[in-house]
Amino acid sequence: MPRFAKRPAFVIALVLLAIDLPCYGQNGTANKIDDYVQAEMKRQRLPGVSLVIVKDGQIVFAKGYGYSNVEHQVPVKPETIFQSGSVGKQFTATAVMMLVEEGKVKLDEKISTYLGDVPATWQTITVRHLLTHTSGLTDYPDDFDFRRDYTEEELLKRAQAIKPDFAPGEKWQYSNIGYLTLGVLIHKVSGKFYGDFLQERVFKPLGMTTTRIISEADIVPNRAAGYRYVKDELKNQEWVSPTLNTTADGALYFTVLDMAKWDAALYGETLLKKTSLQQMWTPVRLNNNQTYDYGFGWSFSQINGHRIIEHGGAWQGFTSHIARYVDDKLTVVVLDNLQGGNAGKIARHVASIYNPELVRKAIDDKEPQVTALVKELLQKLSAGTLDPNLFVPQLRAELFPARAERVGRLLKSLGTPTKIELTDRAEKDGNRVYGYQLTFPNNSRFLKLSLTGDNKIAEISFIDDF
Questions:
Q1: Measured between alpha carbons, how far is residue 246 from residues 73, 96, 308 in Å?
Q2: Which of 188, 199, 260, 351 suits 464 as a labelling partner, its CA being 20 to 30 A distant?
Q3: HSE-up of 12 (CA within 13 Å, CB side)?
Q4: CA–CA distance from 412 to each of 383, 401, 445 (Å)?
């Protein structure tokens, strides 16, 4: 059932708790943020949200909305602990880079050097491939048993039984299995479970007192409950085995307050040298010499020329997002406790309220033929009549038929766009890249489109970020 179908009889009350921070001092802006977050929570039907804004390494706004535990009516506050999902990958990448700086790991060394015997299909995979999701490894297979307890060696063996989708470096494909494998690598190289390594080398030094590996057995003060909708009814999160809440692809507890400490540390060299951080924040270069906007546990984008280093996460009834506007030294972290929530949309919109320069702005459209192509694309995707030959072969294979059908159903549900505005135009890897803000009767999307020299579509994505 669509996430935003009819609202159930259960209504989530919006309880607000805030840290009183005089340095914020912009009541009008604070009220706008409150109004937006409350409206978006109602739209997404989120039980609870925790939010922090960090400027120049200092918290300027931190607030909780809604409930961390619906059954007991416990309000969210800035101290509420949520699950990280894949936001945890940046910590795993940091641990790897610490070992790189110590000379214990080399980025372009084959992972067999650290893991021992690996299948023939894994022989050319390097550490860099795992960090950048270019190894060819996939996600957990459909038949994976999330209710079974595994040892670390059993998890690695299960991962190695999955055949890679492509040769290392050939393309980018998100892989939780790749980061699970990095956790095993950290353990084998350092002699410490990756969670213990992070506790000793990252969390304790930064004073991140609530950040730790997930444990449903331990007593964890201020822990939020995770939720999901089943047949339009709010339910508790699905249970997974204890070991699958300890893997390096994203199994942490943290608060927005701890994430503010993490953000501040990334501007200095407390954890890593600036050269190491720069490697983490550099787009990966593929075998064909083209780049993809992902580094080591971080993805990259921009709004009006303002660079964003960011990542989202989703796991077991929680979603999360950290967006770092590095040129502005502004960071927004949003945590919620609903499977399928869109924390990234809230983070980006809140950033644009705090700094209006981060609102997407229309630019002069000097290529109306491309805008006309976009209009045609939207119409034909919605109608299910889009010509696959408009796309480069690789994207064509990825899009058709399943993904194109899903996008078409989404567009059909949104209706006919009332406004299509060009907001970005750039050159990348010999292609022309365009960004369009699409306004629909009751919603909006951001469309990113890349065209080759012969006008074939090399990339297309729809982002729900405003």
A1: 28, 17, 29
A2: 260
A3: 31
A4: 8, 16, 13
